[in-house]
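**Folding the chain**
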Amino acid sequence: MSNIELTSKIENIKTLQTMIDELTAEMEAVKDEVKAEMNAKGVDEMTVSCFKVRYKEVKSSRFDSTAFKKTHADLYEQYCKTTFSKRFSIA
């Protein structure tokens, strides 16, 4: 692949990423409007046309590795696993 072709592909990636970012922001704004309407109505679930919309509190439990590392550093190191991956970025 030539330098010109690579430049064109990278420019295309940047353009597409900008479009994705703009659409994501627009989608989040519309979601926020629907959430605000649900809050105003005092509901966490509603049916609109053929869509069921839910905006509910969800409880979850997560392991606090930072606190565990502070209190059990040796044990943390014993079970800590190093992984490798490749990251693609354009600056």
Notes: The mean pLDDT is 96.
